[in-house]
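Per-record layout

source: Hermanssonia centrifuga
name: NADP-dependent oxidoreductase domain-containing protein
length: 308
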Amino acid sequence: MATTITLKRTGDKVPRSECAEIVYKALKAGYRLLDGAGDYGNEIEAGEGLARAIKEGIVKREDVFITSKLWNTFHEKQRAKDIARHQLELWGIDYFDLYLIHFPISLEYVEPSAKYPPEWWGLDGAPHPTKVPIQETWTAMEELADEGIAKNIGVSNFQGSILIDLFRYARIEPQVLQVELHPYLTQESLVALSKTLGIAVTAYSSLGPQSWLELGMHTKTPGLLTHDTVTSIAKTHSRSSAQILLRWAVQQGLAVIPKSSNHDRLLQNLQVTDFSLSEEETKALSALNINYRLNDPQTIHPALGIFA
């Protein structure tokens, strides 16, 4: 396996060993939720960081809530079950606390021995959508829950209509919906629907374009961290802009999964439960909504327009 992870848009290389160290330091700092996925390409290293923290007595396995995700090329029932077990092996653990369908998109199977993670493209460099129904994939997810491979199951990047349809046939209902959500994309209707259905919502990209800028993407979009509204509220509370954005989400009852390789920011991002935003401040942040979506698979292929 390569010793670096290459960022697709810029070609920058990130040492895989850094991932193990970041996970270890995050656990040492007090983090107890690790959000992973097969597509992230760092499962072995994340597992190494966890194993080190367990070995040193910082945490026990049962103290840490580990999320992973099923990638698009493994939506067929048996392949979904097989890859989940493979992912556990890469992590070096016996179960996931939460396992999500990463996208409501099925792509042509790519043999892991040929390419893992397979990303969006087949071995010929092109995406190949297939016709595996979500119901087949969800049946596999339910069986993973039955077998203790995943304690909880859920979905990611699902919108209202497909979520409602899933509830029509689910034997085990999804417990979590993970979606992009920040003041540029507030998704109030989807959050309201999720609450009605009894699904916990996890927000990703809570800091807006920042993490995408690091990938060389969305470079023309004004960042939320430097937006006047955000910085003004941050100054009022003597907090960082990131803390304000995270608090805005947490105060709505959402879970957040901020990511950072900077140790000081890791510590800062934990400190969002000891202050509150006023109703006026919350409304001002929500008013920044422009329905701006950073993570849209349709930019890869027209047939992947799940948000169309």
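summary: The radius of gyration is 19 Å. DSSP finds eleven helices and nine strands in the chain.
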